[in-house]
Amino acid sequence: MYEIDLRVGGAWRFVARGPSGDFPAFYGRYTEIARPALLINMEFFEPFPDAGSLVTTTFTVEGNKTRMVLTSAYPSMKIRDMVLATGMEHGAAISYDRMEERAMMMAAERQRDI
User: Fold this and answer.
1) Quick one: CA torsion of 108, 15, 5, 42, rounded to 10 degrees?
2) What does pLDDT average to over the chain?
3) If we measure between CA atoms, which residue out of 88, 87, 86, 72 comes closest to residue 40?
4) Other CB atoms closer than 10 Å to residue 33's CB: what's the count?
5) Quick one: pLDDT at residue 71?
6) What is the pLDDT of residues 51-104, one digit of tens each?
7) Residue 13's beta-bridge partner residues?
8) Whose CA is closest to 74, among 56, 55, 57, 53?
9) All domains of the chain in start order, with CATH
10) What's the pLDDT at 95?
11) Exposure letters 88-104 (e unless 16+ CB within 10 A, then b)
12) 13 — phi, psi (to 5°)?
């Protein structure tokens, strides 16, 4: 489940679902948007509301593809290490792979409609 208000000051919330039920939510607020190349937002994980990160996402066109680079800055190395210890990299990789698959499907659909 997700909610998104994609504007500066707008909030977002994401809840992942797994075989055993819902995971705690990620949520945040957009602080800067420069379409089409940049999104900056604060991100929090519901169980740790005091350990937010500043997330910068850039989009760069490279030929007929777009490169997305996401950087998360944490308030301390301790919090960064705690986040990495959760195994979040695996879950994030799955999400980004699915996003890439969906983008490719949308591009193929767009080509068929032309």
Assistant:
1) -110
2) 90
3) 72
4) 16
5) 95
6) 899 999 999 999 988 999 999 999 999 988 888 888 888 888 888 899 899 988
7) 3, 27
8) 53
9) 2-87 (3.30.530.20)
10) 84
11) eeeeeeeeeeeeeeeee
12) -150, 135
Query: What is the dihedral sign for C-alpha 66, 5, 16, 26?
Result: positive
75: preceding bond cis by omega (within 30 degrees)? no
- What is the 3 state secondary structure string of the chain? CEEECCCCCCEEEECCEECCEECCCEEEEEEEEECCCEEEEEEEECCEEEEEEEEEEEEEEECCEEEEEEEEECCCHHHHHHHHHCCHHHHHHHHHHHHHHHHHHHHHHHHHHC
Answer for the pair 33, 8: CB distance below 8 angstroms, yes or no.
yes
pLDDT at 44: 92
Nearest to 57 by CA among 92, 108, 109, 85: 92
Which two structure tokens, joined as six digits, stand for 20?
């055993």
Residue 59 tokens read as 């989009």
Residue 80 token pair: 């960064």
The amino acid at residue 82 is: M
